[in-house]
Amino acid sequence: MPKFIIERTVPGAGQWSDEEVQTVSAKSNEVLADMPGVQWQESYVVDDKLYCVYVAPDAERVVEHARRGGFPADKVSEVRRIIDPTSGGR
């Protein structure tokens, strides 16, 4: 199944309280419960952006999740390859 990175502009996200994180996460999970085949894996939070990793059949389903949840989805990119330190060989 394809994997996607979603870039979301959310001013102040890096300063969210634990309660705010819980609220946003719960909303995402609520939407996902009605979207079989779409899985949220994790998100990286920086000052004013979130970078979320999803597995889904296609980018349209990821955008639909954002729409239903009221989340921004500024850019959705399909992951073409994953590399890590072991990719260098030896």
UniProtKB/TrEMBL annotation:
Gene3D superfamilies: ORF SCO4226, nickel-binding ferredoxin-like monomer. It comes from the Bacteria. This is DUF4242 domain-containing protein. It holds the Pfam family SCO4226-like. It comes from Mycobacterium dioxanotrophicus. Keywords: Plasmid.
